[in-house]
Design brief:
Blueprint lengths: L3 E5 L10 E5 L2 E5 L4 H9 L17 E5 L5 H14 L10 E4 L1 E4 L2 E4 L4 E3 L2 H15 L3 E3 H14 L11 H7 L8 E3 L2 H16 L15
Helix pairs in contact: 3-4, 3-6
Length: 215
C-alpha cells in the first residue's frame, strides 16, 4: 500500500508555485496565497467565520497521507475546514485521494516515487526543440518562449538545468524581443542535450528522503 495524494483547488485559482519534499512518506507542499488573502488569514483569524468570501482565493493545495492513514478522512476534514472558512472549492478540480495525479502541470506518482512530465507536454517541447534544429537564428521572443518550456520541464528533468544558462545569456545579448540572435554550435549542443533528456530522463526524477540511509 502506498501513499495517497489529494488536491483541492479554490474556485478562483491564481498562478501557483510549489516545492515538493518527502519526509518518511509524508509530502509537505509549500504554497503561498495572495498578499490580501495572507493579511486576512494572518491578521484577524477570529473573524474568518464571519467573512462572506475570501478574495482573491487561495492557491492550489495538495495533501499526502501515509499508507496506513485513511485518506478519505483527510479529504472530508479539509473540505469541512474550507467550508467553515467560507473558501469556495472548485469541485471539478478537487480530486483524490489517489496514488497518481497531475499537480501544477506535473504527474506525481507516490507508488513509483516519481515526478514526471505528461506526454502532451513532452511532445510539445520536442516539437519546439525540433523547430530550432535547422534554424541559424531566431528572435529573442522565440528563444524566451523555448526557455519558458525548458524552465518548466527542469522542475522534473533536473539535469536539464545545466543546459539553459548559455541560452539565457544568448537571449540577454539583445535588447528588443524582435531582435535576432545567432544560434551557434554551443546553442545547438544544449538543444541536443535537451532532446536526449526528454527521451531518457522523464520519470527518473523522484522524491528524496531527507534522512541519510545506510549504503
Amino acid at each position: 500500500m502506498v501513499s495517497s495524494l489529494a488536491t483541492m483547488v479554490t474556485a478562483e485559482e491564481s498562478n501557483p508555485t510549489a516545492q515538493y519534499s518527502l519526509q518518511n512518506y509524508y509530502q509537505s507542499t509549500e504554497t503561498t496565497c495572495s498578499p490580501s488573502t495572507s493579511r486576512k488569514f494572518g491578521t484577524n483569524p477570529e473573524d474568518l467565520p464571519q467573512m462572506e468570501l475570501i478574495s482573491p482565493s487561495l492557491r492550489k493545495n495538495i495533501v499526502e497521507d501515509s499508507p496506513d492513514f485513511p485518506a478519505d478522512r483527510t479529504m472530508a476534514i479539509l473540505t469541512m475546514l474550507f467550508n467553515k472558512l467560507n473558501v469556495p472549492l472548485a469541485k471539478n478540480k478537487t480530486i483524490g485521494p489517489d496514488t497518481v495525479m497531475e499537480y501544477l502541470g506535473n504527474i506525481l506518482d507516490s507508488h513509483q516515487m516519481q515526478a514526471r512530465l505528461p506526454m502532451d507536454k513532452i511532445l510539445r517541447i520536442r516539437e519546439i526543440l525540433e523547430s530550432f534544429s535547422d534554424k541559424k537564428s531566431c528572435t529573442k521572443r522565440e528563444l524566451l518562449q523555448l526557455l519558458g518550456h525548458l524552465n518548466f520541464a527542469s522542475r522534473v528533468i533536473i539535469p536539464g538545468r545545466s543546459f539553459v544558462s548559455y541560452l539565457l545569456s544568448l537571449a540577454s545579448s539583445v535588447r528588443e524581443l524582435h531582435h535576432h540572435v545567432h544560434l551557434n554550435a554551443e546553442c545547438r549542443e544544449d538543444i541536443l542535450m535537451w532532446k536526449l533528456f526528454l527521451e531518457q530522463w522523464n520519470g527518473v526524477s523522484f522524491f528524496y528522503d531527507i534522512e541519510r540511509t545506510p549504503a
